[in-house]
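Here is the promised in-class demo. Please do not try to memorize the tokens; focus on the logic of going from shape to residues.
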């Protein structure tokens, strides 16, 4: 019987095997930024429950800024990962889907009772569907290079920031009373439809890779001026940015159609393989 279970005495000098490999900091830093943005989104929900809509909106805006930074930091440090991409999508759903929907419901949509809650649900679910579609399109190998200049539908941060336009106007003393609730409901529903639509919108991800030397100093001055305006007149700036973004959608859609027609015309004019060989 002793032969079936021989005694085992581990060698005390044998090093213990490592179960987990060390992770480089460049892989952790972008995810920490994403988690900070997620904390801001959850804090915005708490502030909305407490009726503190102004700091709640600022928290969502700050989460949007961090969302624009984490991906660029990951690419700069070469710390992109599948885990980071999934975490970013989950954080975006909370920050730009759940948080704005609950803020808008607590601000005005609750006056419409069930109808207001349904629109808040539609906005949040539309954001989840938009993020799922975006993740699926990343794996499309046949997507033309020029389409990277465009998003399909309104991106999540832009959808959240433009959806809260009624709050910016309220903070400036331009509305937000009970009578405005139906108009806010229609506006939020329209933004939700833009989020899940196939309307092309501006991406800007390919901008800024190379900057001419003559534009470096003007860009610095413009950045300082924009930051100063945002700090000094935050809600006026958010109204201008939201309104300007909405106005650019038809222009960007027309540009997308022109480039799509040019690509189609080039494909039609290009000779096929056998024909090209025969002509040679």
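The designed amino acids, position by position:
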């Amino acid at each position: 019987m002793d032969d079936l279970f021989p005694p085992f005495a581990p060698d005390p000098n044998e090093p213990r095997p490592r179960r987990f490999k060390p992770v480089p900091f460049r892989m952790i830093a972008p995810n920490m930024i994403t988690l900070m943005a997620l904390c801001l989104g959850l804090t915005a929900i708490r502030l909305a429950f407490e009726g503190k809509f102004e700091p709640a909106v600022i928290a969502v805006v700050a989460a949007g800024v961090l969302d624009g930074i984490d991906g660029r930091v990951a690419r700069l440090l070469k710390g992109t990962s599948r885990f980071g991409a999934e975490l970013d999508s989950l954080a975006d759903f909370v920050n730009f889907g759940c948080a704005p929907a609950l803020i808008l419901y607590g601000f005005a949509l609750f006056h419409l009772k069930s109808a207001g809650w349904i629109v808040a649900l539609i906005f949040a679910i539309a954001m989840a569907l938009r993020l799922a579609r975006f993740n699926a399109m990343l794996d499309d190998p046949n997507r033309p290079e020029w389409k990277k200049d465009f998003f399909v539908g309104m991106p999540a941060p832009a959808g959240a920031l433009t959806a809260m336009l009624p709050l910016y106007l309220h903070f400036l003393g331009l509305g937000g009373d009970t009578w405005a609730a139906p108009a806010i409901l229609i506006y939020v529903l329209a933004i939700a439809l833009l989020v899940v639509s196939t309307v092309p919108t501006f991406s800007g991800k390919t901008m800024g890779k190379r900057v001419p030397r003559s534009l470096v100093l003007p860009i610095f001055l413009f950045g300082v001026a924009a930051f100063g305006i945002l700090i000094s007149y935050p809600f006026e700036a958010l109204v201008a940015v939201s309104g300007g973004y909405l106005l650019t959608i038809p222009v960007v859609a027309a540009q997308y159609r022109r480039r799509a027609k040019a690509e189609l015309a080039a494909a039609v004019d290009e000779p096929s393989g056998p024909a090209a060989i025969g002509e040679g």
